[in-house]
Amino acid sequence: MTKNKGSCLCQKIQFEVEGPFEHFYLCHCKYCQKDTGSAHAANLFSTKARLIWLSGEEDITSFNIPSTQHIKSFCKHCGSATPNVQMNGKLLVVPAGSLDTEIHISPEAHIFCSSKALWDSKLELLPKRPQLP
Prior knowledge:
Layout: E1 3-7, E2 14-18, E3 23-27, H1 30-36, E4 41-46, E5 50-55, E6 60-64, E7 71-75, E8 84-86, E9 91-95, E10 109-111
Parallel strand pairs: 3-10
Antiparallel strand pairs: 1-2, 2-5, 3-4, 4-9, 6-7, 8-9
Protein backbone atom coordinates (compact mmCIF):
# COMPACT_ATOMS: atom_id res chain seq x y z
CA MET A 1 0.00 0.00 0.00
CA THR A 2 1.22 3.48 -0.85
CA LYS A 3 2.22 5.58 2.17
CA ASN A 4 3.20 9.23 2.13
CA LYS A 5 4.27 11.35 5.08
CA GLY A 6 3.90 15.08 5.47
CA SER A 7 4.21 17.95 7.91
CA CYS A 8 3.87 21.68 8.36
CA LEU A 9 6.76 24.15 8.32
CA CYS A 10 7.16 24.22 12.13
CA GLN A 11 6.82 20.40 12.34
CA LYS A 12 4.08 20.55 15.00
CA ILE A 13 1.69 18.86 12.56
CA GLN A 14 2.70 15.52 11.10
CA PHE A 15 0.53 13.15 9.12
CA GLU A 16 0.51 10.10 6.94
CA VAL A 17 -1.60 9.29 3.90
CA GLU A 18 -2.26 5.60 3.23
CA GLY A 19 -3.45 4.81 -0.25
CA PRO A 20 -3.26 6.27 -3.73
CA PHE A 21 -3.81 9.77 -4.98
CA GLU A 22 -6.21 9.78 -7.92
CA HIS A 23 -5.77 13.32 -9.18
CA PHE A 24 -3.25 16.16 -9.05
CA TYR A 25 -4.41 19.59 -10.18
CA LEU A 26 -2.87 23.05 -10.33
CA CYS A 27 -5.76 25.37 -9.50
CA HIS A 28 -5.67 28.99 -10.68
CA CYS A 29 -8.96 30.12 -9.11
CA LYS A 30 -8.95 33.41 -7.20
CA TYR A 31 -9.50 31.58 -3.90
CA CYS A 32 -6.40 29.41 -4.39
CA GLN A 33 -4.35 32.45 -5.42
CA LYS A 34 -5.38 34.22 -2.21
CA ASP A 35 -4.82 31.30 0.13
CA THR A 36 -1.42 30.38 -1.33
CA GLY A 37 -0.19 33.89 -2.13
CA SER A 38 0.96 32.47 -5.45
CA ALA A 39 -0.20 31.85 -9.00
CA HIS A 40 -1.94 28.58 -8.15
CA ALA A 41 -2.44 25.85 -5.60
CA ALA A 42 -1.04 22.36 -6.16
CA ASN A 43 -3.38 19.81 -4.59
CA LEU A 44 -3.64 16.04 -4.62
CA PHE A 45 -7.06 14.40 -4.39
CA SER A 46 -8.21 10.96 -3.29
CA THR A 47 -11.48 9.21 -2.54
CA LYS A 48 -9.60 6.04 -1.49
CA ALA A 49 -6.67 7.18 0.67
CA ARG A 50 -6.86 7.47 4.44
CA LEU A 51 -5.47 10.43 6.41
CA ILE A 52 -3.75 9.59 9.70
CA TRP A 53 -2.73 12.40 12.04
CA LEU A 54 0.56 11.53 13.76
CA SER A 55 0.74 14.77 15.76
CA GLY A 56 -0.71 18.26 15.93
CA GLU A 57 -4.26 17.69 14.71
CA GLU A 58 -5.40 20.10 17.44
CA ASP A 59 -3.15 22.80 15.89
CA ILE A 60 -5.13 22.88 12.63
CA THR A 61 -7.52 25.69 11.78
CA SER A 62 -9.87 25.53 8.80
CA PHE A 63 -11.56 28.29 6.86
CA ASN A 64 -14.51 27.59 4.61
CA ILE A 65 -15.75 30.33 2.31
CA PRO A 66 -19.53 30.27 2.76
CA SER A 67 -21.55 29.17 -0.27
CA THR A 68 -18.46 27.66 -1.95
CA GLN A 69 -16.62 24.35 -1.80
CA HIS A 70 -13.36 26.13 -0.99
CA ILE A 71 -11.83 24.97 2.29
CA LYS A 72 -8.37 25.97 3.51
CA SER A 73 -6.83 24.11 6.45
CA PHE A 74 -3.59 25.31 7.97
CA CYS A 75 -1.31 25.18 11.01
CA LYS A 76 -2.31 27.85 13.53
CA HIS A 77 1.38 28.34 14.42
CA CYS A 78 3.23 28.60 11.10
CA GLY A 79 0.36 29.00 8.60
CA SER A 80 1.38 26.03 6.43
CA ALA A 81 -1.38 24.44 4.38
CA THR A 82 -2.50 21.06 5.71
CA PRO A 83 -4.71 18.28 4.36
CA ASN A 84 -8.44 18.27 4.89
CA VAL A 85 -11.36 15.97 4.26
CA GLN A 86 -14.26 17.38 2.27
CA MET A 87 -17.60 16.35 0.80
CA ASN A 88 -18.86 14.68 3.99
CA GLY A 89 -15.71 12.60 4.35
CA LYS A 90 -15.62 11.40 0.74
CA LEU A 91 -12.69 13.47 -0.57
CA LEU A 92 -9.19 13.91 0.85
CA VAL A 93 -7.38 17.03 -0.36
CA VAL A 94 -3.62 17.21 0.30
CA PRO A 95 -1.48 20.25 -0.57
CA ALA A 96 1.37 18.75 -2.59
CA GLY A 97 3.98 20.93 -0.89
CA SER A 98 3.01 19.59 2.54
CA LEU A 99 4.37 16.13 1.70
CA ASP A 100 7.82 15.10 2.89
CA THR A 101 7.97 11.97 0.75
CA GLU A 102 8.36 11.89 -3.03
CA ILE A 103 5.15 11.27 -4.92
CA HIS A 104 4.95 9.41 -8.20
CA ILE A 105 2.11 11.34 -9.79
CA SER A 106 2.47 14.48 -11.89
CA PRO A 107 -0.05 17.30 -12.23
CA GLU A 108 -2.61 16.30 -14.81
CA ALA A 109 -4.18 19.69 -15.53
CA HIS A 110 -4.27 23.40 -14.83
CA ILE A 111 -7.82 24.22 -13.72
CA PHE A 112 -9.76 27.49 -13.47
CA CYS A 113 -7.40 29.06 -16.00
CA SER A 114 -9.98 31.75 -16.72
CA SER A 115 -8.91 33.25 -13.36
CA LYS A 116 -5.18 32.88 -14.04
CA ALA A 117 -3.03 35.78 -12.77
CA LEU A 118 -1.94 38.13 -15.55
CA TRP A 119 1.72 37.80 -14.52
CA ASP A 120 1.52 33.99 -14.75
CA SER A 121 2.69 33.54 -18.33
CA LYS A 122 5.94 32.44 -19.94
CA LEU A 123 7.43 31.76 -16.50
CA GLU A 124 9.44 28.89 -17.97
CA LEU A 125 11.49 31.50 -19.89
CA LEU A 126 12.78 33.24 -16.74
CA PRO A 127 16.41 32.64 -15.69
CA LYS A 128 16.83 29.67 -13.34
CA ARG A 129 19.19 30.07 -10.41
CA PRO A 130 20.19 27.41 -7.88
CA GLN A 131 19.62 29.78 -4.94
CA LEU A 132 18.79 33.38 -4.01
CA PRO A 133 20.69 35.80 -6.28
